[in-house]
């Protein structure tokens, strides 16, 4: 009958070692037995713990060298896994948002458009307006940074765990019309409804068919007090009847859209044009 005691020979045969701390506590030592090593890696793969799988050996060596307890070793190992998962989740959320480029608020030149309140724009990055199911409208001339100020809060929302999706107005209408033709419109509308923040850029740059305008109206109206919209447009609200092809539909939409809405008027000289003129005025470099 087994006495429950392990002999020195038995400990040696396991291929593992236990290191004692000055206080008498055991600390993990590197895995030496090939079979155990392969089994552990297999288990970690099955449990879908890739970071722990990659790091358990170097961390075990560090833990043994610094006399860490098993709890300290496991804590560090799980912290790395949690951090890696958070990073992967954020990267996935940003990819799914499909921003054309990545732009943050710290790269926006507020001095180029003094009429835009920097404080109010920075408040958008806190995402409280999204939890309140409010909207944002950025209205103004081309080249004033509307797309930049739509992407930056969108990226901030992704970092806060908000499901976000970026479209140009033309691309969204094209998808809606295509889905209608293929009888998959209900499915697309459900997908859009699950998005917490829907960003629609360049509304008014291109005209839509009557059916396209009606589909876009449906998407916007369905989000009222349930989800958030961020819209950029080169047209003032008074000209939106050009987009939705009728005063009645436009009035109904604006009534819902602007009920809980942060409106930024961004009229000024085009930043791109200004930069282009500045470059032309610079003397040519000497050869």
Can you walk through the features of this model?
The chain has 287 residues and is of the alpha/beta class. The protein has two domains: 33-96, no CATH class; 99-267, Rossmann fold (3-Layer(aba) Sandwich), CATH 3.40.50. It has 13 helices and seven strands. It has helices spanning 8-14, 34-46, 50-65, 70-97, 118-124, 128-131, 146-159, 169-181, 185-193, 210-222, 241-244, 247-257, 271-281; strands at residues 18-20, 26-28, 135-140, 164-168, 197-203, 228-233, 261-266. A five-stranded parallel beta sheet has the order 4-5-6-3-7. It has a two-stranded antiparallel sheet with strand order 1-2. A hairpin with a 5-residue loop joins strand 1 and strand 2 (26-28). The radius of gyration is 29 Å and the shape is elongated.
CATH class of the largest domain: Alpha Beta
Which stretches are low in confidence, meaning pLDDT under 50 for 5 or more residues running?
1-18
Largest sheet: 5 strands, parallel
Number of domains: 2
Identify the overall geometry: elongated
Class by SSE composition: alpha/beta
What is the fold named in CATH at topology level of the largest domain? Answer: Rossmann fold
Topology pattern, helix = H, strand = E: HEEHHHHHEHEHHEHEHHEH
The total beta strand count reads 7
For the biggest β-sheet, the strand order reads: 4-5-6-3-7
Provide the gyration radius in Å.
29 Å
Tell me what the CATH architecture of the largest domain is. Answer: 3-Layer(aba) Sandwich
Question: How are the SSEs placed, and which strands pair?
Answer:
Layout: H1 8-14, E1 18-20, E2 26-28, H2 34-46, H3 50-65, H4 70-97, H5 118-124, H6 128-131, E3 135-140, H7 146-159, E4 164-168, H8 169-181, H9 185-193, E5 197-203, H10 210-222, E6 228-233, H11 241-244, H12 247-257, E7 261-266, H13 271-281
Parallel strand pairs: 3-6, 3-7, 4-5, 5-6
Antiparallel strand pairs: 1-2
């Amino acid at each position: 009958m087994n006495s429950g005691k392990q002999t020195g020979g038995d400990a040696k045969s396991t291929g593992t070692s236990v290191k004692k701390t000055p206080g008498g506590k055991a600390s993990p030592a590197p895995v030496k037995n090939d079979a155990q090593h392969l089994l552990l890696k297999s288990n970690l793969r099955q449990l879908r713990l890739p970071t722990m799988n990659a790091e358990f050996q170097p961390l075990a060596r560090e833990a043994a060298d610094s006399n860490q307890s098993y709890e300290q070793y496991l804590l560090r190992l799980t912290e790395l896994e949690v951090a890696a998962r958070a990073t992967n989740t954020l990267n996935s959320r940003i990819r799914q948002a499909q921003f054309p480029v990545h732009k943050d608020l710290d790269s926006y030149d507020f001095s180029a458009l003094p009429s835009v309140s920097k404080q109010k724009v920075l408040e958008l990055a806190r995402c409280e307006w999204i939890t309140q199911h409010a909207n944002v409208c950025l209205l103004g001339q081309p080249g004033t940074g509307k797309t930049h100020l739509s992407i930056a809060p969108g990226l901030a929302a992704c970092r806060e765990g908000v499901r976000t999706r970026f479209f140009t107005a033309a691309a969204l209408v094209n998808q809606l019309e295509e889905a209608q033709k293929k009888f998959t419109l209900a499915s697309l509308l459900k997908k859009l409804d699950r998005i917490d923040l829907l960003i629609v850029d360049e509304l008014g740059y291109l005209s839509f068919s009557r059916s396209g305008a009606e589909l876009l109206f449906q998407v916007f109206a369905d989000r009222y007090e349930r989800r958030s919209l961020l819209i950029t447009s080169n047209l003032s609200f008074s000209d939106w009847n050009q987009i939705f092809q009728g005063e009645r539909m436009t009035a109904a939409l604006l009534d819902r859209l602007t009920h809980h809405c942060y409106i930024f008027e961004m009229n000024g000289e085009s930043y791109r044009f200004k930069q282009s003129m500045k470059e032309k005025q610079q003397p040519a470099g000497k050869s």
